[in-house]
Sequence to fold (147 residues):
Amino acid sequence: MSKLHFTTKHANEATVTHNWYVVDGTNQTVGRLCSKIAAVLRGKNKAYFTPHVDCGDFIILINAEKVKFTGNKLDEKVYDHFTGYPGGRKEEIAKDLQRRRPEVIIERAVKGMLPKNRLGRKMYKKLFVYAGGEHSHSAQKPQTLTF
Fold:
């Protein structure tokens, strides 16, 4: 009896194509939206996904100021930052951060869902978040992506 030999095709930089997508954040829940964005940035939506290769696409998120939180998170969720100096811990609730810098909420959530290595940092650079409905990437001809 002859043996059948199947080989797995691994993606590499030459075979991967990076597409551009626009996602509208209006009335989307933060965590659910960010987990789907992180999956696309990693390339998990593609048939040739390979964990050690950057297979992901570019994501442009517009209307980040219109995302919503469930429950009491808008009033109770605390974002903190430590400057490295004594007494340098800064805290801010989600409502104030969304009013001041709405892009940061999405960026921090997506960054936490990506791998913590140089590949994850490369994937994170493919995310572009805008508070309003306008973006400056029309030359890339992004397609609309809905979740």
Observations:
- The domain at 20-101+123-130+140-144 is CATH 3.90.1180.10 (Ribosomal Protein L13p; Chain: A;).
- The chain has a mean pLDDT of 95.
- The chain is about 30% helix and 15% strand.
